[in-house]
Amino acid sequence: MNETHASSPKAEPLSAAKAVAAGIDFAELQVGPHGLFWNEYRPEDAACRVWHWQAGTATCLTPPGFSVRSRVYEYGGGAVCLTADGIVFVNEADQQLYRQSLQGETPERLTCGTCRYGDLQFANGQVLTVEENGNQHRLVAIDLADGTRHLLAEGADFYAAPTLSPDAHRLAWIEWSRPHQPWTATRLMVAERLTDNTFGPARCVAGDNAEESLQQPRFDNASRLFCLTDRGGYWQPWMEAENALTPLPSAAADYGPAPWQLGGCTWLPLNDGDYLASWTEDGFGRLGLCGHSTQDYSSDYSRFRHLAIDAQFIYCIAASPVSSAAVIAIDRQSQKVNVLAGGVTPLPAERISRPQTLRYPSGSGEAHGFFYPAMTGEAKPPLVVFIHGGPTSACYPMLDPRIQYWTQRGFAVADLNYRGSSGYGRAYRQALHLSWGEVDVEDACAVVSHLADRGLINGDKAFIRGGSAGGYTTLCALAFHNVFRAGASLYGVSDPVALGRATHKFEGDYLDWLIGDPVQDAQRYAARTPLLHADNIRVPVIFFQGELDAVVVPQQTRDMVEALQNNGLLVEAHYYADERHGFRKAGNQAHALEQEWSFYRRVMNLPL
Question: Is this model's pTM higher than 0.90 or not?
Answer without folding.
Answer: yes
